[in-house]
Every structure is written in structure tokens, then in C-alpha cells.
Amino acid sequence: MDLGRTFRHLFTTIWSVRRAFPPSSLDAIARAIKDTEATHEGQIRFAVEHALDLSQLLSGRSARERALDVFSQLRVWDTQHNNGVLIYLLLADRDVEIVADRGAHAHAGQEWEAICRRMEERFARGDYEAGVVEGVRAVGQHLQRHFPAQRGGRNELPDQPVVL
Fold this sequence. Notes:
Blueprint: H1 3-11, H2 14-20, H3 23-37, E1 43-49, H4 54-58, H5 63-73, E2 84-90, E3 95-100, H6 102-105, H7 111-124, H8 128-146, E4 162-163
């Protein structure tokens, strides 16, 4: 067990999320998702969680494992073209994970990891809103290449960020 990680999780509260993502930032992220989804048929969700609970920490749960849970809970996989993408931030670790449904993942590969690292660099400087907006746009550019906008496309998932 990593004591440093445990302490970070114990002392990172929901208020930390509210400081990093005030309502104006959450609105800006929702607008970025809406704007980028107008250029492609993909579906993007952003979720931020302040920390893992103690039982998850003691079991050694990773941010990636938690992101997979959230992907399922938010039903990001439930899109017509299997092109949903979750951008998940575990704030206590400043760890970003991108989980994509099989349609989007088949075209992505290493691109997701590079987007995550750029976002984490922004977060390390405390630039949370810009980091997420940049990440959303980068994911959107990728989806635009592989799932260009079609007439009559519909928004299948909410654009509003989820605070867990």
C-alpha cells in the first residue's frame, strides 16, 4: 500500500473538485463537448471524481479500473455506433483515463494516452478547465476523422460533466 496515495485520497474532498471545477468551468466543458460533437458522430462524457474510498484504496484499485466502472455506470457504451468516449479524472491522483467503446477504440490506440498525458501536464500546473477543454477537443478531432458528422445525427449522451 502506498501511504502517499492513501493520504492524498483521504484529504482530497469534494470541495477540491469544486475549487478545481467551479460551475463556470463545468459549463465551459459542457460547451466544448457540445461544440465538438457538432463535428462528429461520437459521444463524449467527462467525469471527475475527487478520490477513491478507503476500501478501493486498500484493494489497490487503479484509476483505470475505476474509469472502466464509471464508463459502465454512465452507459457510455450504449451508443448507436459504439463510439462513446469517457474522459475520467481521478483528482487525488491527477490521473486521466480515456475509455472508448469498441467502435471508437478500434481507431484510436496510442492517441488516447498522449491526450491523457497532455491533460495531466495542465493539471499539474493547476489549469484544470483548459486541460479538460483541450482534451475534449483532441478527442473530438480524433472522432471527427473516423466518425464525421452526418445529417440527422443526434446527441445520445448528456454533455454536462459528471462530478462523482
